[in-house]
């Protein structure tokens, strides 16, 4: 089973690698650590280091709260619904391949549904913290899609644990510890909370990382 999972993950990475290469981007696969930064435009999976689940979404809506697309945490490594694209603010796009600065504001767009990682003051269904959802259409949403990368270095390094702080509510992306039943049995509840703690840490894992070209610098 582990071998099948590894092969499937490699196939997904290769497919995305080819897709990006056809658009003349320079990319690094998940197991290529020669380039150490998370960059604008990269496709990544985010691992919550405390609960060992990856940030996930799908075209299933909450039955309460906002009724928007649900965002969860899942354990399977090979799930293609766990890919997110790193983007700049809607009114301030970042250059593809540019390393993400710690303290900068980004958006994360879900690859499959093209909805942005979003939060607001709606109550989450299980723990009654603040709900996290997928919002917008084709990557276009609102200010509730903005997240600040909080980390201790100059740039977001791929082996670094970081926090994502929601700009509007001033709260941190986290795993509540609660587990859903049907129709998303076993998936973890993702919320935002006002306090920084061990449940807030995320790490960039599998994905396709854009490298800067010779003409793109760090801004």
Characteristic terms for this protein:
mainly beta; Trefoil (Acidic Fibroblast Growth Factor, subunit A); 219 residues; disordered C terminus; 13-stranded antiparallel beta sheet
Textual characterization of the structure:
- The chain has one helix at residues 2-22; strands at 27-28, 43-48, 53-61, 69-74, 84-88, 105-110, 116-123, 130-135, 147-150, 163-166, 171-179, 188-193, 202-210.
- The chain is mainly beta.
- The protein has one domain: Trefoil (Acidic Fibroblast Growth Factor, subunit A).
- A hairpin with an 8-residue loop joins strand 11 and strand 12.
- The longest helix has 21 residues, at 2-22.
- It is globular.
List the SSEs and their pairings.
Blueprint (H helix, E strand, L loop, with lengths): L1 H21 L4 E2 L14 E6 L4 E9 L7 E6 L9 E5 L16 E6 L5 E8 L6 E6 L11 E4 L12 E4 L4 E9 L8 E6 L8 E9 L9
Antiparallel strand pairs: 1-13, 2-3, 2-5, 2-13, 3-4, 4-8, 4-12, 5-6, 6-9, 7-8, 8-12, 9-10, 10-11, 11-12
H and E string: HEEEEEEEEEEEEE
Q: In DSSP terms, counting alpha (H) and pi (I) runs of 4 or more, how many helices? A: 1
CATH class: Mainly Beta
Give the amount of beta strand, in percent. Answer: 35-45%
The end-to-end distance, rounded to whole angstroms, is: 44 Å
What coarse outline follows from CA principal-axis ratios?
globular
């Amino acid at each position: 089973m582990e071998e099948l999972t590894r092969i499937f993950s490699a196939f997904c990475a290769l497919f995305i690698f080819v897709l990006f290469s056809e658009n003349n981007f320079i990319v690094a696969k998940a197991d290529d650590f020669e380039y150490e930064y998370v960059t604008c435009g990269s496709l990544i999976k985010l691992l919550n280091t405390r609960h060992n689940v990856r940030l996930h979404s799908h075209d299933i809506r909450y039955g309460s709260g906002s009724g928007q697309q649900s965002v969860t945490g899942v354990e399977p490594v090979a799930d293609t619904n766990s890919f997110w694209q790193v983007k700049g603010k809607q009114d301030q796009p970042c250059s593809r391949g540019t390393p993400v600065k710690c303290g900068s504001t980004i958006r994360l767009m879900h690859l499959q549904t093209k909805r942005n990682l979003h939060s607001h003051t709606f109550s989450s269904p299980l723990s009654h913290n603040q709900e996290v959802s997928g919002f917008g259409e084709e990557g276009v949403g609102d200010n509730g899609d903005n997240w600040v990368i909080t980390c201790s270095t100059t740039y977001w390094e791929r082996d670094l644990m970081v926090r994502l702080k929601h700009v509007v509510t001033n709260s941190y992306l986290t795993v509540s510890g609660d587990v859903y039943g049907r129709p998303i049995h076993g998936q973890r509840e993702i919320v935002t909370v006002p306090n920084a703690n061990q449940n807030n840490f995320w790490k960039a894992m599998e994905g396709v990382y854009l490298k800067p070209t010779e003409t793109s610098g760090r801004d």
